[in-house]
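Worked example

This section walks through a single chain of length 137. The input is the sequence exactly as stored; nothing has been trimmed or padded.
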Amino acid sequence: MKRILVDTSVWSLALRKKEKTDQEMRVINQLSKIINNLDMIIIGPIRQEILSGITDKKKYEELREKISIFEDFQLHTYDYELAAELFNECRKHGIQGSHIDYLICAVAINNDMSILTLDNDFQLYKKHMKLKIEKIA
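Given that input, the structure is written out below as C-alpha cells.
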C-alpha cells in the first residue's frame, strides 16, 4: 500500500472551492482515488489549516464533520526535530516556508510517504531534501 500525505492545498480545492476547472477536477478525482485505495494520510496540522479561517460557524461545523472520518497520522518528536533541520537547511539556501510545510516534509520523509500538493513551494524544498511529490494526474 502506498501512503500519500495530502496537503492543505488539495483539500481546500476539494472542500471549499465551488466552481472547478477540468484540471482541478482531475486533482479531485486523483484525491478520490487515493482515499478509495486507503492510501490517504492526514496530520493534525493539515486538519488545522483546512479548518482555519472559516468564520461562518455552520460552514465550519459542516467541514469539520466531513473530514472527521479521517484519522490523524501520529506525529513524533523526531518529526518536529527533522522539520526544524529542514527549515534551517532551506533557509540557509534562501528558501522560506511555513513551519507546517516543513513538518509535512519531515513526516513524509520519516515515514516513506509522498506528498500530493498544489503548492509549488514543495518543488523548492525538494531541491534540498529527499522528498517524494505525487504527480498531478
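What to look for: Residues 8 and 50 are 6 Å apart (CA to CA).
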